[in-house]
Amino acid sequence: MEMNNVDIDTQKIGRRLAQFRKEKKLTQEALSEIINMSANHISTIENGGSYSLNALITICDCLGVTLDHVIYGNLRNNKIDNFIDLLNLCNDYEISVLFSVAESLLSNREK
Prior knowledge:
This protein is an all-alpha fold. The chain is about 70% helix and about 0% strand.
């Protein structure tokens, strides 16, 4: 079985994590309290430093983002999974707007 070499860019991963954290309106200190990890370690990760897979998973779970989105910078190729991932990034208002759009599309389709 041939394995593809995956280029892990810790700088990009760190920037993405910082972006997702800021979108959730969390400081590094607030995130550190939620996941029981030092704010210093979170800063190191966001600045491209080393981390364990467990730390990355813990942060992703807390921020509601998928590992593939954080690592690769894009969502999966499956349209349904992509849509679910996008919904997980939305706030309540954005979800209500999308819900209204979906309802409108379905009601017009039936006509």
